[in-house]
Amino acid sequence: MTDKQKMFADEYLANGFQAGKAYLAVYRNTKSENAAYANSCRLMNNPAVKEYIRQRMKEIQTEKTADAQEVMEYLTAVMRGEQQDELLTMDGIAKEVRVSSRDRNKAAELLGKVHGLFDKNVNLTGEMSIKIEVDYGDNS
Fold first, then answer.
1. Is residue 12 in some structural domain?
2. CA-CA distance, 66 to 97, in Å (whole number)?
3. CA dihedral over 105, 111, 114, 115, signed as positive or negative
4. Rg of the Cα trace of the chain?
5. Residue 22, number of CB atoms within 10 A of its CB
6. Is 90 exceeded by the pLDDT of residue 10?
7. Which residue has the higher pLDDT, 125 or 112?
8. Closest by alpha carbon to 104, among 82, 73, 72, 88?
9. Tens of pLDDT, residues 13-36
10. Do 42 and 81 belong to one domain?
11. Could you tell me the CATH number of the domain that includes residue 59?
12. Domain of 57?
């Protein structure tokens, strides 16, 4: 993989996955946007570039993306009132206050949904027998 291909891949990740713009940013002597888009498609199909982008995406996700446990811990802390919120007073002074009851209720609702507490469809299973008798009255 060349240095320019690596720069292209990094620019592609940095600019929101716009391959044509990434190509134009790295290969500045390109005169035509059509050529830039065609060449960026070719680069995106290059196995080395693909693998580099895949690895970088994995690194970015690991560093910057919250996993399910982190989200659950945050929502639990908000629901319990352990999180602080910043409030700006009329004097321009920032003051830390507990999160509002509205925010706590919303966190509780989200946690409840995760745990299936509000499911409307309740499936009950069990064994039972039904005996149906039909009485047609006197046969005489």
1. yes
2. 24
3. negative
4. 30
5. 24
6. yes
7. 112
8. 82
9. 998 889 999 999 999 999 899 999
10. no
11. 1.10.10.1400
12. 3-64
**Is 134 within the bounds of a domain?**
no
**Residue 109, token pair as written in the block:** 């609702």
Mapped to the 3 state alphabet, what secondary structure does the chain carry? CCHHHHHHHHHHHHCCCCHHHHHHHHCCCCCCHHHHHHHHHHHHCCHHHHHHHHHHHHHHHHHHCCCHHHHHHHHHHHHCCCCEEEEECCCCCEEEEECCHHHHHHHHHHHHHHCCCCCCCCCCCCCCCCCCCCCCCCCC
17 lies in the same domain as 55: yes
Residue 86 lies in a domain: yes
The average pLDDT across 52-72 equals: 83
Q: Are residues 55 and 31 in the same domain?
A: yes
**In this structure, is residue 128 part of a structural domain?**
no
Candidates 100, 112, 31, 114; CA nearest to 69 is 114
